[in-house]
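Hello Y.,

Per our agreement to keep a running log of every chain we model this quarter, I'm adding this entry. I've kept the format consistent with earlier entries: sequence first, then predicted structure.
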Amino acid sequence: MNPSDKQVVLITGCTTGGIGHGLALAFAAENCLVVPTVRSLPSMADLDGNPSRFFPQEPDVSSDESVQRVFSRVLEKFGRIDVVVNNAAVQCVGPLAEVPISSVEHTFNANVYGSMRLIQAVVPHMASRKKGKIVNVGGCSALAPGPWEGAYGASKAALRALTDSLRLEVKPFGIDVINVVPGDVKSNIGNSAINSYSGSMRLIQAVVPHMASRKKGKIVKVRGCSALAPGPWEGANAASKAALHALTDSLRLEVKPFGIDVINVVPRDVKSNIGNSAINSYNGMPEWTLYKKFEEAIRSRAYFSQGPKSTPSEVFAKKTVAALMKTNPPSWFSYGQYSTILAIMYSQPLGVRDFLLGKMRKC
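Predicted structure for the entry above:
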């Protein structure tokens, strides 16, 4: 096969014995030109001696400059990138009330922001060719977070939400986005978990010891429906909310032995100041290049939750407080315009959800 006919596949996190390493070998077996990457080349030495199949690189996914440098090298050598696989990840194990915030930040920098850096580097290139595939390797802990894995599960929940938004945003450019969710696969992540053990987390860590000493208390997390069915133009917000949903689910199990209730409050389209805040934030964004023709649709998203049918804040507050004051409060409370519709959309097949959200957000 002519090298120009082979697909160029860039994969992060290819340490020997891990999922990325296995993917590199499998893609190479399919006659792809593979760019396996890792922070230290000796950790994938067996892929470094076959230049006809592998072009090993050593980026630091936590650095914009490093990612751009590797991206430029690959384009210089092959002239294109057909597939990107965001696989690099670190574990973080420990109770949310005590795990160091720095460890949580490190987990998100590797598992979420690292993927974002590669996505932002490759999308303009793929859009110019009107084709490409972006693969994000998530985790089952994002679907059903358990105790002691809150930080890791939250990072994977954030990545899943980003993936859902991105899939709709890049569809007009012929780019496919796939979320791969492995179960229990033998890899090196268990070793990294043993080695590794923000505002909301700090407050939780400050208050849990006090509540535990009294054997009672309630921790309420107010999050958004966008985490249930992320649409285009709201990926960052949806990812942050999805992360907090996952953290809440883990925390509820971890603090239950101390008599502490954890409640996830999920408003939808409640009148508040968030529309003004969103538009102020939006006005500080750089001028769009690829998405210039979507300017009106993107800007309208900032005001979407503040329409004439939005639930008055005092009505939402009264309903919420009534639920929270119960002796046995619900673990999940959702109220507001369209909250039921979003909950229903969450359970729909991705194809149905993408179609509906794409129409709603003019993508």
